[in-house]
Amino acid sequence: MSASTGLALDATLPCGTDVADLLDDVIENRPTSPHAQRCLDCQTVTRTLGGRWRTVRAAARAPVPEPAGLRARLVAALHADGTGDPLRVDGERGTLLLGPRVVTQLARRAARQVTVVRPGAVRYTEGRLSIEVAVRYGADIDAAAAAVRDRIARELADQLGIAAPGVDISVTDVFVAGGA
Amino acid sequence: MTATAQMLAPAAGPETVESACAGDRAAFEQLVAQYTPLVFRVALRIVGNAADAEDCVQDVWLAAWRSIGRYRGQAAFSTWLYRVTTNAALMLVRRRRPALPLDGLSDVGIDTPVSIEALAAADAVQRALRALTSDQRAVIVLREFEDLSYDQIATILDLSMPAVRSRLHRARIELCRALEDWR
What we know:
The complex is a heterodimer of chains A (about 180) and B (about 180). Chain A is α+β, with helices and mostly antiparallel strands and about 180 residues long. Helices cover about 45% and strands about 20% of the residues of chain A. A three-stranded mixed beta sheet of chain A has the order 3-4-5. The longest helix of chain A is centred in the first third of the chain and has 22 residues, at about 40-60. Chain B is mainly alpha-helical and about 180 residues long. Chain B has one domain (about 5-180): RNA polymerase sigma factor, region 2, helix turn helix motif (Rna Polymerase Sigma Factor, Chain: A, Orthogonal Bundle). In chain B, helix 2 crosses helix 3, helix 3 packs across helix 8 (about 135-145) and helix 8 packs across helix 10 (about 160-180). The radius of gyration of chain B is 17 Å and the shape is globular. The model of chain B is unreliable at about 1-10, about 100 and about 105-110 (pLDDT under 50). Classes of the chains: A alpha+beta (about 180), B mainly alpha (about 180). At the A-B interface, helix 1, helix 3 and helix 4 of A face helix 3, helix 4, helix 6, helix 7 and helix 10 of B.
């Protein structure tokens, strides 16, 4: 049996041992059974699976840094959450009042669709949306802002059937493509 | 926040959680400071790329801020947060457009000294996670990466213990299969 390729994890070895059981033994660090100590097939498979699982354990230990500025964007978003005015949507059969959280959530979702920006605080006050964004380093800021406005307009039109209010965009940060 | 400042940040204790539950924004921000690395780490490993993971983190904290008043302390705060995070990440994976690239950890950017080998292993595993269903990914992340107990995972995923064991068994097999070509 090859140690590196072609190992069928659903298979049963000629000795009657299930490969999946050997995998469980490896993962749970169970002592090798007397049979496996004698069986060459079991030893080969156990070595292969052990190598793969060591890779998983190494990955689990690798640090995962958070993107630069993430906490600042979070705190800004939290401060803005739920503040602002309701949005009036006048219809033929009456007026619909939407809380500021609904409007800002839709705007945030729309802004996220623009891949070169990351939204932070979003507010709706006095009939205008204001949104803070980080823009990807190297991106055209005017084009990014236009794309955000366009996405928000489309989202509000699709979801609420209304024209978008004015959208004020503040670029508060830049980020590097890929994350941090 | 720098790594040093992160280390110096005071740990949020039960009284911080209690204050946050009562609507204390400063206490809540202390929770954000302490737990954002956990939330980002879990989100990244489930959704697979940094941009979606950041969206997920924002959703988690906004949802947590709105609903923390309903947290009654029946489970540890971290368990509750794992649950909110896992649900948000799974929801994001299910609703996003298909074929989004999954970043390796090296794409996120690591400023902590780490060996090339460890980074390569982390990348390989992150890419192998793609082969799993999102439900399998969640259970693997909670068990093998976050080292949570079966009992905690059952609570977080709202599954029975046999269901956790069965899903984890399948997920481990799939992950091992996906790592076949590595090295």
